[in-house]
Amino acid sequence: MVNRLPGVYIVSDSIGETAEMVVRAAASQFNSSTMEIRRVPNISDCETLDEVVHQAASNHFLIAYTLVVDELATHLRQEAERHGVTCVDILGPMIEALKQSSHITPRREPGLLRKVDEMYYRRIEAVEFAVRYDDGKDPRGIELADIVLVGVSRTSKTPLSMYLAHKRIKVANVPLVPEVNPPEELFKAEKGKVIGLTINHEQLSHIRTERLKTLGLKGQANYAHPSRIEEELEFASKIMKKLGCPVIDVTNRAVEETASKILEIYYRRISNI
Predict the structure, then answer these.
(1) 96 and 132 in one domain?
(2) Which of 69, 101, 154, 239 is 20 to 30 A from 78, alpha carbon to alpha carbon?
C-alpha cells in the first residue's frame, strides 16, 4: 500500500506562493511519495470560498490559506467547520502575534509581499543596467536609460549612476573626452534625459592628482595637468551647450546632494510627458 498524504487546496487573496511553500515544507517531513496541491489564487469573494470548501469536502482535501482580509478569512473558517474540512491559517497567527507585540494595526492588503519583491528586482535590474552601460561602454544604453549623465572623468558619473540605481532608476553615463566624438545617440535623446556634470578646475585637479597617487603614478601626469583639465572642461561645456542639457556643478557636493538635483530634473521631466 502506497502512503499518501491528503490533497491540499491552497487558498489566497494573492498568488498563494507563501502557503504552498509552507505546505510542501511540511509534506517533506513525511515518507510519502505523492501529495496533490491545487492552488486557488486571487480570492476576493465569499462565493469562491464556498465552492472551494465544497470541493475540499467532496475530495477529502485539506485547506491551507493566506487571507489577510478578515472577512474572507472568517467566512472560510466558518464554512470549513460547517463541512468538517480541516482548515489551516498559514499567515494569520504571525500577523496577530506581531500586532499584539507592536500594538500596530496591520494593513490587511493582499499582495504586499509581491510588491516588495517587485521593487527589489527593479532595483537589481537598475544596478545591472548601470554596470552594463557605465563609461559609455554601449551607446544603445542611451535610448534605454531613464537618465544619461555626461561629463569629464572624475565628476562622479559612476557613483551617481549606482546611487540612482538603488532608487530603481536606470542610468547610463558617457565620458566626454576631446579625442573621442560623443555618440550620435546623445543628440537623438529626448529632451531632458541627458544631464551634464561639471566641476571647477582646482577641485578636479586635486581629485585627479590623488587618483594618480593611489595608482602609484606621478601627479604631474597629463591626466591631472591644469592645461589638460582646462581643455577637457571646455570641450565638455561645448558639447553640453550643443545638447542643450541641464548642467549640475558637482564642486564640493556630496553624491547624495547631486543625486537630489538630478532627481528633481528627472521627476520634472516625466511629470510633463
Answers:
(1) no
(2) 101
